[in-house]
UniProtKB/TrEMBL annotation:
Subcellular localization(s) per the UniProt record: Secreted
Organism lineage string: Bacteria, Pseudomonadati, Pseudomonadota, Gammaproteobacteria, Aeromonadales
Pfam families linked: Glyco_trans_1_4 (PF13692), Glyco_transf_4 (PF13439), Polysacc_deac_1 (PF01522)
GO CC terms: extracellular region
Domain NodB homology: residue ranges: 421-612
InterPro entries in the record: Glyco_hydro/deAcase_b/a-brl, Glyco_trans_4-like_N, NODB_dom, Polysacch_Deacetylase
Protein name, UniProt field: Polysaccharide deacetylase family protein
Keywords: Signal
Main location: secreted
């Protein structure tokens, strides 16, 4: 997808690091990202377009909107993701005009006033980085709870290897100073916190306080520069190394996360709260406030008189490897880069699909017959004449037929790009008439398709060989394609996938047999045709979570269902919803089914039926 990241900031912030980290991961996953902001200090591979969101006069904001509209058009932007109030306000108006969705990440407590209640500018969904934000924007600003999503700051834990405790003579020895690092800006509320922390440690000469952050030293801090206890290191790019060479870290937000991942005890003090020493018992409270940065009410609570005691307790914690490791594992789980980026990535496609009421249609056929004499008992066919009409319509309306091979390596994320009007035609079972009747028409109209083959069966034994007296009527025998015919279709650009050995209901047979049906069908087909089979179709659309896990473990990239699965294609790549074509479907019905919005109607119909 094509995403626009919008920030408003004049110096490095947690929001910028968040947006830059997210951008890096999205680009690595095949998305295109553009960043607009007043400034940017973190390296990013995305194009950067400066835009002074912090200039907030009416005229400037109109300029922001005009500029955003030009960017949206130029880069074919499909989703805008704003990370600040100033940028979100302008983006909300631009998105409304451009008719594309807006998502915001709310990084801090929001001001409460009438205009904010009227124009919330949180977008379709707002991602809240902690519980206190989620509580505040729903309670005080009236934003709907079901339109908020709790996802914490994303951190790549692999870049923060836990370090052993720094070697010192003793806690009290003058030659073995306790190195405490305070990391954060020296401006605004964080500057107030830094000022109080310095005052609290000055009476304790065994502590050396390193103050890390801020490009310039504000005037009120000048009085401390003569003290040998206080070291002002300014803005640094080697923060990870400085954390590792510290005994105790003081900070909030991302600082707390990175310090814990590095195996250092953290005293969480942010703009709003003094959370104190973070332990396994106090972690939940620290997470709720983003390590002290955000309260859910408009008040602050600080206890700097506890700081010295917390530092001493932090030193004891630094020697407790088990507690630090448990703390690290919990933080690693809460701030998982893989989990959070995947959730945001899926949110982008979900909100776009919901907003546009469109998703790539995946169509399901079985047989294509030339005359009435070829039809069977069951209605799993279309006539060649009607199939020709389908292909002619697709070609006339500018559709491009694609296969799952075309969508691999993240290319399915390009399905909404300008000019990409995609549809996937699938055929189950591999009937011989797919070769005799469907292939000539596919060639005539220059269309692709995906056919799912059986790994053992040579005819439709699953519905032709029913026991005598069965409630299910026996179908006529229809031959499946022979390998030479499959090879010819492969050469014509048709993709083939696996459909088990002989078409059982996978969720209704023993797990061992289900696994054999999945794995062995893949192995058999790859042995016969000398190429990988990476797409799977569940017979009858019969599946559950255990069956999906088997398909994934077998090495398939995509798996298609029938009348199950989310309306969003990539919500679950192992349960992709398909739209069945039946012999009684008119051309009007076919047009609806390939429109891209049919599944919205279908799912609503299914939901109504369940409620009855």
């Amino acid at each position: 997808m094509n995403i626009l990241m919008a920030l408003s900031q004049r110096e490095i912030t947690g929001a910028e690091v968040y947006a830059a980290t997210l951008t890096h991961e999205l680009i690595a996953r095949g998305h295109k990202v553009v960043i607009v902001s007043d400034t940017i200090t973190v390296h990013t591979e995305a194009p950067f377009i400066p835009l002074a969101f912090n200039q907030r006069s009416f005229g400037e904001r109109l300029h922001h909107v005009r500029t955003l509209l030009n960017i949206i058009k130029q880069y074919d932007i499909q989703v805008v993701h704003a990370h600040s109030r100033a940028s979100a306000w302008s983006c909300a108006l631009a998105c409304k005009i451009a008719r594309i969705p807006l998502i915001t990440t709310t990084h801090g407590r929001q001001p409460v006033h009438l205009s904010r209640k009227i124009i919330k500018a949180f977008g379709e969904y707002s991602i809240c980085v902690c519980e206190n934000i989620q509580t505040q924007i729903t309670r005080d600003l009236g934003f709907a709870l079901d339109r908020t999503i709790l996802l914490r700051n994303m951190v790549d834990a692999s870049t923060f290897a836990p370090q052993p405790p720094r070697l010192r003579c003793s806690d009290e020895d003058a030659q073995g100073k306790i190195i405490v690092s305070l990391i954060g800006r020296l401006s605004g509320p964080k500057g107030d916190v830094a000022y109080e922390v310095i005052k609290a440690v000055l009476p304790h000469p065994e502590i050396t306080l390193r103050v890390i952050g801020g490009h310039d030293l504000p005037e009120r801090f000048q009085q401390f520069t003569a003290s040998p206890q206080i070291q002002f290191l300014g803005y640094r790019t080697d923060v990870a190394e400085l954390i590792a060479s510290s005994d105790v870290i003081i900070g909030a937000g991302r600082v707390g996360i990175e310090a814990i991942l590095s195996g250092r005890p953290v005293i969480a003090i942010g703009e709003a709260l003094y959370e104190g020493l973070v332990t396994t018992e106090t972690l939940a409270a620290a997470l709720s406030s983003n390590f002290g940065d955000i309260n859910d009410v408009k008040e602050t609570r600080f206890h700097f008189d506890r700081l010295y005691t917390d530092i001493k307790q932090a030193l004891q914690l630094s020697r407790d490897e088990n507690s630090l490791q448990e703390l690290r594992e919990r933080v690693q789980q809460e701030f998982s880069l893989e989990h959070i980026v995947t959730a945001i990535e899926k949110l982008y496609s979900q909100v776009y699909v919901q907003f546009k009421h469109y998703e790539i249609p995946v169509i399901m056929y079985h047989r294509v017959i030339a005359s009435e004499s070829e039809k069977g008992v069951h209605g799993t066919y279309v006539t060649a004449e009607r199939f020709r009409e389908h292909l002619a319509y697709l070609k006339d309306k500018g559709y491009t037929t694609v296969t799952f091979d075309d969508l691999r390596n993240n290319r399915y994320k390009q399905r909404f790009d300008r000019g990409n009007k995609w549809v996937i035609l699938t055929f189950d079972d591999g009937y011989e008439d797919n070769y005799t009747h469907a292939l000539p028409l596919l060639k005539e109209f220059g269309c692709k398709a995906v056919i799912f083959l059986m790994g053992e069966a040579t005819y439709n034994s699953w519905d032709a060989d029913v026991p005598e007296g069965s409630a299910q009527p026996a179908e006529r025998r229809f031959a499946l394609m022979t390998p030479d015919k499959v090879q010819e279709m492969m050469a014509a650009g048709i993709e083939f996938g696996a459909h088990t050995l002989n078409h059982p209901r996978l969720a209704h047979i023993p797990a061992a047999e289900a696994r054999r049906q999945i794995v062995q069908s893949k192995q058999n087909l790859e042995s016969i045709y000398g190429r990988e089979f990476k797409t799977f179709a569940y017979p009858y659309g019969d599946l559950n979570e255990e069956i999906k896990a088997m398909v994934k473990e077998a090495g398939f990239d995509f798996a298609v269902a029938t009348d199950s699965g989310d309306v969003v294609f990539d919500h679950d790549l192992y349960q992709i919803r398909r739209i069945a074509i039946f012999p009684g479907n008119s051309m009007h019905t076919f047009k609806r089914k390939v429109s891209g919005w049919y599944n919205f109607v279908k799912i609503r119909r299914e939901q109504r039926a369940k409620r009855k």
